[in-house]
Amino acid sequence: MRCIVQKYGGSSVADTEKLKKIASIIYGVKSAGYDVAVVVSAMSKTTNNLIDLARNISPDPPKRELDMLLSTGERTTMSLLCMALNALGIEAISLTGSQSGIITNDRHNNARVIEVRPFRVLDELEKGKVVVVGGFQGVSYKRDITTLGRGGSDTTAVALAAAINAERCEIYSDVDGVYSADPSAVKDARHLPEISYQMMQEMSLAGAKVLNAQAVQFAKEAQIAIYARSTFSPGRETIVRTLAPGLTKGIKAVVSENDVFRIKLFEEDPLTSFRKISEILEEKNILIKELSISKDSVQHYPASVSFVISCSNAYGWENVKDLLNKSFGEKISIEEGLGALSLIGEGMGNDVSVVNETIKILESSGIEIFGVTTTSFRISFLLKNEDIKKGVLICHKKWIEETSVAT
Questions:
Q1: Over the Cα atoms of the chain, what is R_g?
Q2: What gap in Å lies between CA 366 and CA 355, rounded to an integer?
Q3: Could you tell me if 383 and 345 are in contact, meaning their C-beta atoms sit under 8 angstroms apart?
Q4: Residue 69 CA, distance from chain mean position
Q5: Is the CB of residue 227 less than 8 Å from the CB of residue 183?
Q6: What angle do CA 229, 230, 231 make, to 5 degrees?
Q7: 130-165: b or e for each residue (b if 16 or more CB lie within 10 Å)?
Q8: Model-wide pTM > 0.85
Q9: 79 exposed, middle or buried (CB, 10 Å; 0-12, 13-18, 19+)?
Q10: Structural domains of the chain ordered from first start
């Protein structure tokens, strides 16, 4: 029988009435002759409330214990949804990440899925049951409960879809797919009916919240199509899949992320110092982005290390900052109050004219630029937090709205 994996996010499972509606949706899919595995997030605001509880006890709680606490949010949702399904006459069973065979490394709060052993899931599907899996969580090879970081339920869904050879993976949220910008911030944002894996990954890494970057990587490796849809407003959707070369040419989206920190270190031996810094951040599960290390081969000036981290990943940041300042003193500089604005599209890294024109229009609008980085699918500009919203509107008008009209 054909199988579909569906994932429902926090806003979709915000209360019991919404859970009943989701049960009706699943009933329709099951009645159409599909096996269905469902991945659910914690109910809206539950994870944040649990984090607040932990921080009321300790400003920097042990990460293993935090994972034990946070994993309870998804367990509540999956149990309630199974009750709603059984009330409709559909036999359903809830499984935790560990019961579903989601095996991770032992990195608490931001674990990576290394293997999926879906034997229990397949057994229950074979019995005709709907399997409801708690997303965002797994079990390490040490048999500890782990969580996958923000957006981790997407990763659970796609990894599970690949493991059970599902026909597709449907990601449901409160928006009907992927847009050229956040539609709540840019009223003329354009809906994107389809998008490549590579471009979606860059959007996710740059701050777009529709899909998790690790989930997209799983989908790309397994060639599982992702359908991003609205839970309660069916109609449009965005399909994430392999696209023919050239279809994503040019700027397709403008994405932003607030509250990033830039860290700089100046000294004669940057490689050794970076290893020390990375060990500190690794211990605190803080991910490094936009890394640049330079060492002068001719002059004897101090060399430099520069990188960016996201505030959303920086649990216990004040303690980490104090440790970095004590370890490196005047050699280290930590810049806060910054955000990143990114232009997404194929061939970005080679288009210097786009970089120059964007610098021109931002600076002419009184927006100061603190850094520029590029990849094959992204150009990112480091701005002050307070300039991000204005910058997004300017760039979207220039590169999406006016370009679309011109072509």
A1: 22
A2: 17
A3: no
A4: 21
A5: no
A6: 115
A7: bbbbbbbbbbbeeebbbbbbbbbbbbbbbbbbbbbe
A8: yes
A9: middle
A10: 3-243 (3.40.1160.10), 254-406 (3.30.2130.10)
Report the alpha-carbon distance of residue 379 to residue 356 in Å, rounded. Answer: 11
- Going from the first residue of the chain to its last (407 residues), give the mean pLDDT of each consecutive group of 10, the final group possibly shorter: 91 94 96 96 92 90 93 96 97 97 92 94 97 97 91 93 94 94 94 94 90 89 93 91 78 94 86 87 82 74 83 74 90 93 85 92 97 91 96 96 66
